Amino acid sequence: MSKSLCYLLAIFLGVLIVSCKNSTAQKEQTQKLKKEKVEPVLELKSKQPKETIPENMVWIPGGTFMQGATSTDKMAMAHEKPSHKVTVDGFFMDKHEVTNAQFSKFIEATGYVTVAERKIDWEEMKNQLPAGTPKPHDSILQPGSLVFKKTKSSVPNLYDYSQWWEWKIGANWKHPNGPTSNIEGKENYPVVHIAFEDAMAYCKWANRRLPTEAEWEFAARGGKAEAIFFWGDETNQLRYYANTWEGEFPVNNSKADGYERRAPVMQYPKNDFGLFDIAGNVWEWTSDWYNANYYSEIANQHSNNPSGAKEPFTPNNPYAKERVIKGGSFLCSASYCASYRISARMATSPDSGMEHLGFRTVATEEMLVNK
Question: Omega into 250 within 30° of 0, i.e. cis?
């Protein structure tokens, strides 16, 4: 793999690495803290929607909660801290990730062409790269997207993600694993290789919008104030609740959860708000800019319906203008990523589509009334 391509991969992809084991002592401490806490952190609003709940959506009641990592989450990364008080109004949310079937209807109705299918404009791309970055060979600058590939042996350096990602010409939402693959028979799978622009175009057509990070996290909690995962704090329950990587990453996936890569939607238990696949399967776009300092800047504030940072900031890449994605994917494991946790967040370039990146939408009562 060329240095230029590796650099492109670095621009297109942001990955957070974490390695942690949940000890018995940590579990006992978690239970102790729960018993000692008298005042609830999460307060649900009781208002019910006047509008009929749209098909394939659920009502999220809104309320007040502490966004960010809980005090008992030993796997939490620095940019998930400190937790801060947030209130969100009620909204409707897709009960599952947008599927290939749903996205196909959008394409048929509009003729939209996704970012991964468009001819690459080097003059536009180089404006996002450091001055002097050499132009890759024309054989590389072809429409495509990032596809996961297993390694043949153990990987000692999990920070070098170019070892398991490759730029595959011809990969897009219709050909998720490359030009020879297709989505026939996978209408109920989540659509992937979706760039931010693609998700926004779908939202405009469907009279929806992307959730803010705060809305997404509140919805994912399902009313659980202190839980690390949407089902509770037990890591050993992961395979029963989410499609993630089981086994040695990225060499072997034991498929203990039933799937090696993507899974059809609604194959695992829903959370207490009725949301499926809120952990694992594919990452989901939010509307927020990613700014590593944002949580620290608002630590002492009580935010109402926050829309995130005013401007993007990624410490190790000053050229990056990235958005927050949530939920983790089928590639998340305890040794790599662990982003099936509720507070986990990752930064990704808006022009990047990947095999493990999709989205779900939200709507407000006002949007439905004014449609």
Answer: yes
Q: Supply the range of the domain harboring residue 312.
A: 3-369
What is the Cα–Cα distance from 354 to 142, expressed in whole angstroms? 15
- In the chain, the number of structural domains is 1
Beta bridge partners of 146: 167, 354
Task: Record the tokens describing residue 116, joined without a space.
Answer: 């991964």
Can you tell me the distance from the alpha carbon of 149 to that of 152, in angstroms, rounded to the nearest whole number?
Answer: 10
Is the pLDDT assigned to residue 73 strictly greater than 60?
yes
Residue-level pLDDT at 131? 76
The pLDDT value given to residue 371? 66
- Please tell me what DSSP assigns to residue 66: E
DSSP code string of 274-295: S-SSSSBSSEEEEEEEPBTTHH
What CATH number is attached to the domain comprising 360?
3.90.1580.10
* Average pLDDT of the residues in 63-67: 95
Residue 190 near residue 284 (C-beta atoms within 8 A) = no
Q: Which two tokens stand for residue 141?
A: 């600058």
Environment class of residue 313 by beta-carbon count within 10 Å: exposed (0-12), middle (13-18) or buried (19+)?
middle
The two counts, helices (H) then strands (E), for the chain are 9, 13
Average pLDDT, the chain: 85
Q: pTM (2 decimals)?
A: 0.84
**Length of the chain as a residue count:** 371
Backbone angles phi, psi at 213, to 5 degrees: -60, -40
234-272 per-position pLDDT tens digit: 988 999 999 999 987 888 888 999 998 899 999 999 999
